[in-house]
Amino acid sequence: MNTLFLPELREMLAENNAHDLEEFCTALNPARTAEFMEGLDPAESWRVLRHADLKLREQIFLYLVHEKQISVIESQDRAEVAELLADLPADDRVDLLHDVREEVVEEILPLLPADERRDLLKLREYPENTAGAMMTTEIAMLDEALTVREALTDLSHQAEHLETIYYIYVVDHDLHLRGVVSSRQLVSAIGKQQQRLGELMRSDLITVNALDDREEVTRKVAKYDLLAIPVVDAQRRLVGIITHDDVLDAFREEATEDAQQLAGVAPLTESYLKTDVFTLAWKRGIWLTILFVTASLTATALKVFEARLDEWPWLMLFVPMIMSSGGNSGNQSATLIITAMTTSDVKLSDWRRVLFREVLVGMMLGAVLAAFGLLLSWFMTRNHPVAHHHLLWPLVVPITLVIVVTSGAITGSLLPLMFKRLGLDPAMMSNPFVAGISDILGIVIYMTVSMTLLAKMTGKL
Amino acid sequence: MNTLFLPELREMLAENNAHDLEEFCTALNPARTAEFMEGLDPAESWRVLRHADLKLREQIFLYLVHEKQISVIESQDRAEVAELLADLPADDRVDLLHDVREEVVEEILPLLPADERRDLLKLREYPENTAGAMMTTEIAMLDEALTVREALTDLSHQAEHLETIYYIYVVDHDLHLRGVVSSRQLVSAIGKQQQRLGELMRSDLITVNALDDREEVTRKVAKYDLLAIPVVDAQRRLVGIITHDDVLDAFREEATEDAQQLAGVAPLTESYLKTDVFTLAWKRGIWLTILFVTASLTATALKVFEARLDEWPWLMLFVPMIMSSGGNSGNQSATLIITAMTTSDVKLSDWRRVLFREVLVGMMLGAVLAAFGLLLSWFMTRNHPVAHHHLLWPLVVPITLVIVVTSGAITGSLLPLMFKRLGLDPAMMSNPFVAGISDILGIVIYMTVSMTLLAKMTGKL
């Protein structure tokens, strides 16, 4: 926390020093101003912000930490808060009010201008994690019939109220999206002031539908290097845009969620330190219990082979090592395939190629581990009575490792593809299944290989 | 692959139909044009591209797949390729030539205009994954003494050659960065044409140093919601900018790298399907072998307790289950802490809070698994002769589970913080250590708990 200016700020507040407080609000980049206010409580923060003009107040407010924003909205004068909210970008307003207590929202709604209220109610209808929920409705939108000169004048009026003019969307009279001109094109065309937007615009546009998933949005923006992507409804009417900063935020959230899911944690909605321990225990407990149930199947499997393990007790020594090698190999494959699917490098139709590669890689990896396994099993059992009597027994662990590592790779790569095919989230489903299946497979393969080889061996002894 | 237009394209090439090929190049969004060309070989692609004007040719070329770009540069006429390269954004040019054979680069360099050549040689000096290696040197840069009117005129000349004019940077005569105006501000100020940039500009700027790490760039851009971030040298001279699309790409690469490292795969430099199987086997093999070596320590640990396991053979049944519970808990904690550190939610100084929370969560989770473990161990050993003779024995597995899950959580959360403290990459180092330590801890704790309880028990029998 940045507490550098905190004493001065508190002093200014105590003195009600309007001049200095105004100076503090205007001197710095709004993000920095917000940083310096971190130590203030919500009421103090609001008292400081009232010394900035509405535009600046809005900018600084957007950089405050989320909890403080909510707390300000819930605790401060409704009319003043409504004035601030009315001026925020539509997408930020929806996100904020989403976390505000419902009775406060009910009190604030009637105080918003009719346009903003209608907007808010409309945006609130879109399900979470859809393009509609991410978008803002403030768009630089111009009629295709305008000339460059008219467009520039029109735009200089709109610019003050807009979150962005990176792209200017060109629409017909029914707001159907027709094309786009960039601000760069417009500035470059200053010399040709009589040209119409309809001629200047590019009409082959990349768009998303309002009900498209958030992942579809990040995928398209990244693929086409867009600054902002227009959102259209089913009739191809322009309803909003999603800007690069929201895409980056969505992308970060997704990456964190995917990482958490891969580690068997139900995604946290808050940051780690802000999530209370009971929620944390719950989000981890669900998957830990599921993983425990699959792991307990290993006990059952071992129980099945108990009589044989009693006969060859040294076999037991290598069970954890073999299981974890299969699990690690499966985990590697699953993560590689899941990240490759996220970036669209691997598609469902590639499954044959994936399978072929994983079998190859699995056998190579298995062979390397087998070499180590051979050394290890010879070393660990060299004093056992059965040792050195037969050529076959030191091969039990190496042969098992090749098969286990390869089947781990196959399971780990095919399960995510299968879950994707079934319409399930591969990141969420794969981990417990890969772990469970490769654990059981590990024991069954080990026991089958050892029993086969040892039966031959005792037959020959 | 999009093969819809492939026959038509090939026909046009066979007929040398300049009119239709030109039409094809101009009709669509450049990204889409590139998609339709996916099926063509590099020589065919180049023949198509020659029908687009230089500006458009450049745009379409940038959307071709990387391998085809490299192959075109290496195989086609050097002078024509140099003409294209000279026109590309500086950062893309560097990235491309990075993968082109060195002898081809040597042949192309003399054909580039002096400015671009100097630029290229300068950019190539920055180490990979630094801000300098990500930036482009084409910047909208204006002198602070200009008026709004002069700036707009100047800018309309610059705009054609620039990758972006999202922000216009204001510099003094020595190119020291003084401030920034947005294109929005400039358009809004069209009415005040005599105002000087020095008055209009915002001077509290967020910048990165050319030698800063890529992660620092993505962190700042995400935190401050920037469209582009200026890169300065040690003397605070403006040397380049990094734009949002490069930040998004960097962010995606980092997220994929982190996920791969968490699963014990050395980060791939190419996408999954483009990485040949030997590279893949190598990148997985290193960590799989390290993990195997730590896992083989479990065999050693079991060997130490072999005599006692012979005495109580049912203990063996639960070894894999207990080990995997500790490992899963550690894996969850490690991932939570690593993702929280990536987004700066957890800092090194938070270690006490993290430890406290993990102990609490670990004990709660351990208690839940203990309940299942109690049922399971009672069920699995109900026919063993020793069962039901003493109250203590069914407690062995549950007590072990509580301790193992809690120590897994502690190990998993403290190791990443420790690696960070030592200046190592937590995502890379944590997984094998967490797995190794929690495996060994699992066995040692299990054996200690069981021996203590069983000794009491046999003493009383």
Please tell me about this protein's structure:
Two copies of one chain form a homodimer. With 461 residues, chain A is mainly α. Chain A has three domains: 120 residues, MgtE N-terminal fold; 103 residues, CBS-domain (Roll); 189 residues, SLC41 divalent cation transporters, integral membrane domain (Tetracycline Repressor, domain 2), CATH 1.10.357. Chain A is built from 22 helices and six strands. A three-stranded mixed beta sheet of chain A has the order 1-2-3. In chain A, strands 4-5-6 form a three-stranded mixed beta sheet. In chain A, helix 12 links the parallel strand 1 and strand 2. Chain A is elongated, with a radius of gyration of 31 Å. The model of chain A has no long low-confidence stretch (mean pLDDT 86).
Task: List the main descriptive attributes of the protein structure presented here.
homodimer; 461 residues; mainly alpha; MgtE N-terminal fold; CBS-domain; Tetracycline Repressor, domain 2; 3 domains; 3-stranded mixed beta sheet; 22 helices; elongated
Task: Give a nutshell description of this structure.
The structure is a homodimer of 461-residue chains. The first copy, chain A, is mainly α and 461 residues long. The first copy, chain A, has helices at residues 6-15, 18-27, 30-36, 42-49, 54-63, 66-75, 78-87, 90-99, 102-108, 114-124, 131-134, 148-158, 183-188, 197-200, 214-224, 244-262, 277-304, 306-311, 319-342, 351-380, 396-421, 426-460, and strands spanning 141-143, 167-171, 177-182, 208-209, 228-232, 238-243.
